[in-house]
Automatic annotation (TrEMBL):
Location of the Peptidase C45 hydrolase domain: 108-337
Span list, region Disordered: 338-365
Highest taxon of source: Bacteria
Keyword annotations of the record: Transferase
PANTHER family: BETA-ALANYL-DOPAMINE_CARCININE HYDROLASE (PTHR34180:SF1), PEPTIDASE C45 (PTHR34180)
Species whose genome carries this gene: Halomonas aestuarii
Entry-linked InterPro entries: C45_proenzyme-like, Peptidase_C45, Peptidase_C45_hydrolase
Name of this chain's protein: Peptidase C45 acyl-coenzyme A--6-aminopenicillanic acid acyl-transferase
Signal peptide: none
GO molecular function, one term: transferase activity
Gene3D superfamilies tied to this protein: 1.10.10.2120, Penicillin V Acylase, Chain A
Segments passing through the bilayer: none
């Protein structure tokens, strides 16, 4: 897997994204057409009409991103309504769809780590893209996500990173769609700006955003249309799966987690305590090993095909990300972390102790 560089104005970034990944974007539309029908009984045409109600919210909270969506559509030869619907896929299917993502932030020996598995339907595996976006009006950033979407999981040149956990809920109100809010956070310079997205712009449907920065700050944000619930680090650690537990803010939101969400959280907490005690050696390899854990399989942190689940609910780990935010370095393993023999590492050159000419490299081929 390689990174796709995008630069220029919002429109130029969008057109380049659409041209580079036109085939994958079209395939993503087909995947979500099936998903909407499986989960909420909507065909693509009805889903497009459903997505229209989020347009005024984006116009209020992040109007510039609409230029990029229009560019993606132009570059891919699609209607802008298709790209809008793709970027609102969480809101359209929120009553039923819930992935199995496991995420954690870890601060050890002056280094701030941020990591997660992204678990979703297997038919999206080959539609995953890595984007390096250098806009005229925002800091350079890396986003790992789905072709045609403006952002998902990643970090920027300031060492600010964000991870995502899906929350299954019937709540949907005023705010930014989840993936649009993630992009706005990735364009923030610091934690205060990132918190303002969740607190002031709000997010129209529930999710968990795990935000951290290279200077050692981390915060879990259970976002929704109201005041977000907050999870502060304990002994340098914040963990989250797919249920709400902050106990403030989002406690008014009802969620419907799958049974394995709590067991994965318990296991994640135990692994971080047992395998990574303070003072021990930590690198990407140790963190990918945690993300590759199979305790409780098939409903484990690293998720594989489970024939006992209904076909429309089978979720597998599609990629894993480990970020060293202190050194501005992101490492991606496409596929399951226990199986992948290839990593993509991207590094911003102005990080402490980093050669400014060495901004990206492919490792472990």
């Amino acid at each position: 897997m390689h990174i796709t560089p995008l630069s220029g104005s919002r429109a130029e970034i969008g057109v380049a994204h659409g041209r580079a990944h036109a085939g994958l974007i079209t395939h993503s539309l087909e995947v979500y057409d099936r998903l909407f029908q499986d989960f909420v009984g909507l065909d693509w045409g009805r889903a497009r009409r459903e997505a229209e109600r989020f347009l005024p919210m984006i116009e209020r909270g992040f109007p510039a991103i609409l230029e990029e969506m229009e560019g993606i559509a132009r570059g891919a030869g699609l209607d802008v309504e298709d790209i809008l619907t793709l970027n609102c896929r969480s809101e359209i299917s929120l009553t039923q769809a819930s992935g199995g993502c496991s995420a954690f932030a870890l601060k050890r020996d002056g280094t701030q780590w941020l990591a997660q598995n992204w678990d979703w339907r297997t038919d999206q595996l080959h539609n995953v893209v890595a984007l390096e976006i250098s806009g005229n009006d925002a800091p350079p950033l890396i986003s790992i996500g789905e072709a045609g979407m403006v952002a998902k999981i990643g970090m920027n040149e300031h060492g600010l990173g964000v991870c995502l956990n899906a929350i299954r809920s019937r709540t949907c109100g005023e705010g930014l769609p989840i993936h649009v809010a993630l992009r706005k956070i990735l364009e923030c310079r610091d934690m205060d700006q990132a918190l303002a997205v969740a607190r002031d712009d709000r997010v129209c449907s529930p999710a968990h955003f795990l935000v951290a920065s290279g200077d050692g700050e981390a915060l879990g944000l259970e976002v929704h249309p109201g005041e977000p619930g907050r999870l502060a680090p304990e002994d340098g650690v914040v963990t989250h799966t797919n249920h709400l537990y902050a106990g403030s803010g989002a406690h008014r939101v009802e969620d419907f987690p799958r049974p394995d969400s709590r067991s994965r959280l318990t296991r994640l907490d135990a692994l971080l305590r047992e395998r990574l005690p303070p003072g021990g050696e930590i690198g990407e390899g140790e963190l990918f090993a945690i993300l590759g854990d199979h305790d409780g399989a098939p409903l484990s942190i690293c998720r594989h095909f489970n024939p006992d689940q209904p076909a429309e609910e089978r979720m597998e780990t599609l990629f894993s990300v480990v970020m060293d935010l202190t050194r501005r370095r992101l490492t991606l393993r496409h596929g399951k972390p226990c199986e992948s023999d290839e990593s993509l590492t991207v590094q911003f050159g102005d990080a402490p102790g980093i050669d400014p000419d060495q901004t990206r490299q492919d490792l472990e081929r």
